Amino acid sequence: MLTLLKLLKDGRFHSGEALGAALGVSRSAVWKQLQHLEAELNLPIHKVRGKGYQLASPLVFLNAEAIALNAPSLAWPIHVSDTIDSTNAEALRLIDAGHAAPFLVLAEQQTAGRGRRGRKWVSPFAQNVYYSLVLRIEGGLRQLEGLSLVVGLAVLQALRELGVLGAGLKWPNDLLVVDKKIAGILLELVGDPADICHVVIGVGINVNMQKAEEVDQRWTSVHLETGVAVDRNHLVAQLGIQLQRYLERHKASGFSALQGEWEQNHLWQGQVASLIAGSSQVDGVVLGVDRQGALRLSVDGVEKIYSGGELSLRLRDDS
Asked: What span, in angstroms and rounded, lies between the C-alpha atoms of 10 and 57?
């Protein structure tokens, strides 16, 4: 099926006869593959008698060479898959197999994409960015303090480079446009964080997606915000450049050097919000974050600090 899709990727009409000849199959076999493409990859295909078949919009596939040309300063090996369970899971397998960090894992589609707290990350084929960068961390816990927030700043700058000027941060790991999610971050650690470990920086960005009925929260995409389809290779390259810049600053000076910039871009700064952990809830005013990236919340006039992977922040009136 992917061979057929690559024949159609230019967005032009192709006759069933020409497609069959290129694939070495009958026109009826082409028809069956087209039905599978629509059903399994959720890609609309126009069918016009006398003209043939056409993707509703052209596709540009992820390509390691194109990414390297757009970001020649990055020396990360790039692993690109058509379909895998998740880029983070593949990154963890490559660590176990002995691949030396840093390296980058990308996929056109995830069958089991994951967000924070085990939530599903919807991952349609060749529409978004599913990105996992593996780093080797030496020097102890200081190198991990506020790391997910630092990654958020890098993703934010990459989105703004594409014209998504209304994007902002939501503690701890989301990027929103107003109240709609456009990107999320999931970090996973392997090894001893107090000594030497690997961290997988997982980033999911809604890029060219325009429909997704299975998403269970308000969302948007770069295409919906700008009205322009995006070359994902360019976005991946820009994200890599921004990550390299922010990670170098973080390594040199710690999160405290970026604390002010993060708070300036936090959409819920000064807002009344609810912090939820399991069945418990704390209401307060968002003051910002501390020098380690933990949430600062004013509860009944008293500043309190919260951190942890299972916390969720919501606006007070957010249902």
From this structure: 8
**Residue whose C-alpha is closest to residue 247's, from 161, 169, 147:** 147
Asked whether the bond before 193 is cis by omega within 30 degrees of 0, the reply is no
For residue 82, what are the contacts with CB-CB under 8 A and spacing of at least 6? 2, 107, 108, 109
SS3 186: strand
Question: Residues 222-235: pLDDT tens digits?
Answer: 999 999 999 999 99
Tokens of 120: 């599903």
Active site residues: 116, 181, 314
- Spell out the domains of the chain, with CATH numbers in brackets: 2-55 (1.10.10.10), 64-263 (3.30.930.10), 268-315 (2.30.30.100)
Closest CA to 205 of 179, 174, 226: 174
User: Does the pTM exceed 0.85?
Assistant: yes
Contacting residues for 89 by C-beta, under 8 A, at least 6 apart: 112
Q: Which of 263, 205, 188 is nearest to 239 (CA)?
A: 205
**Rg of the chain taking only CA atoms, in angstroms:** 21
Q: Is the pLDDT of residue 118 over 60?
A: no
